[in-house]
Amino acid sequence: MRKRIGIIGGGQLGLMIAQAAHRLDASVVVLDPASDAPAFAEADARVVGAFDDIDALERLCEASDVVTYEFENVPGDILRHLEGKYNIKQGIAPLFDSQDRLREKDNARKHGLDTPAYTPLPVVKDGTPMEEKECQALTPQERMIQLGFAVGRMGFPCVLKTRTLGYDGHGQVVISGFEDIGKASELLSVPCILEEKVDFDFEASVIMVCNGQDIIHFPVARNIHRDGILDLSVVPTSGLQRDGRENDTCRRMTSACENFMKSCGYRGILAIELFVRGDRFYFNEMAPRPHNSGHYTIEGCTTSQYSELCHFLLDMPLRKPELIAPTVMKNILGQDLDSAKDIVAESLRGAGPGIEVSSSSDVVNAFCGEAGKGVYVHLYGKTQSRPKRKMGHMTFVPMTLDRFYSEWASRFV
Ligand SMILES: Nc1ncnc2c1ncn2[C@@H]1O[C@H](COP(=O)(O)OP(=O)(O)O)[C@@H](O)[C@H]1O
Ligand SMILES: [Mg+2]
After folding, report:
1. CATH classification of 117-196, choosing from 3.60.110.10, 3.30.1490.20, 3.40.50.1220, 2.40.50.320?
2. Does residue 307 contact residue 20 with C-beta atoms inside 8 Å?
3. pTM value?
C-alpha cells in the first residue's frame, strides 16, 4: 500500500513536499485553514481546519502513516498531545525550540553555536523576562525606559524583535539611533528580544536532514534579503568555497550545525540561518522544515530538500546532495508576479532557446534548454497577490550572481 504522508500546513512548502512525495509514490494529506491553500492542488486528501483545531489535526493524523509540518506555529500543547498518539516523525522538540526567539538562541548557545549578543525585554527587577500579561500592563513611558536602558548597554545599531510569531521581517524594528526608541518601544506590549545588529559580510543557511544515524547537508546558500524578506539565494558563494569545494569557514560552519543538530537530538529536516563575518559565523534562527533558501535544491542539486525530507519520512536511506551547477534562486513576490508570468509567456511563445514548458495543477515550470539547465518558474497558485507576498520563485541553472544582475535583475521591481 502507498504510504501516506500528512502535512500540517498547505503553503508553498507543503506544495513542494507533496510534489516530492508523489515522485516517491507516497500519497499526501494536507491540513490548512484556507480552502484555497496552494498544497491542496497537489494533495490526495484535504482537511480544512485551523492549526489549533484539535479535531481537524486528529483527522489529518488518522489519515496519515507519518506526519510532518511546514507551519511553525501549531500550539506546543496540542502538538505534545498529538505526538503521544501519532507518528510525528520529527517529534515536536525542534518545533517547540524554534517557536520562541529567546529559547531558540539560548538553545543554540547551549549546543555550541555563537549568536549575536541578545537580551530579553521587558524584564522585571531581577532581570527575569516578563510574561505577556505583565508587558501589556506597562505604560508607554515604562516601555521607553526599559528599551532605553537596554539599548544603552547593547549600543547602536540593534534590532528589537517579538519573541514569537515573527516572519519575513514582521515583528522587528532596527534601532539605529535615539530617535528610533519611541516607535520601537511600542513592540514591548509583547515579550521581545533585543539583539546586536551584526555587521555581517553576508547571510547563509545550512539545511540538514538527519535520520538519527546519518546526517546530510545541502551546499550552503548565500542569502540576500530585501526589506527583511529573502530575495535571492546564491550557490556557491566566494566567502564559502575555494576551487569548487567548501572552504575552511564553510566546513567549520556545516560541522558546527551538524553537531548542533545531533547534540539536540533532532531528527528530520532543519534549516539554520547564519550571519557570516570574516571567518566567524553567528546563529540567527532555525526552522525544522524545508526553507525558502533551499528551493534552489530542486533543480540545482542532485537531490532536493523536499526529496530528502520525504526519504526521511518514508524510512528510505538519505542521499548526499551535490551541486549540479552554480545556481541562483529569485523569490517572486506579488510585485514580481507579472514579470514571472511574462517570462513563462515568452517561453510558451518559443522566444527562448529550445524551450519546453510543463504544467501540473497550478504550478508552471518553464524551462529553457535541456533538463538540468534553464530557467524554472514555480508559481504557487495563490489566489490573492499582494506586494511582499511570496507568490512563486524562479531558479536559474547555471547562473552566477554577476550574470543574474547583468542579465535578469532589471526584469524585476
Ligand atoms: N541581529 C541582526 N543583525 C543583522 N541583521 C539582522 C539581525 N536580525 C535580523 N536581521 C535581518 O533581518 C532578516 C530577518 O530577520 P530574522 O530574524 O531572520 O526574522 P524572520 O526571517 O523570521 O523575519 C535577517 O535575515 C537579516 O537580514
Ligand atoms: Mg529569518
Report:
1. 3.30.1490.20
2. yes
3. 0.95
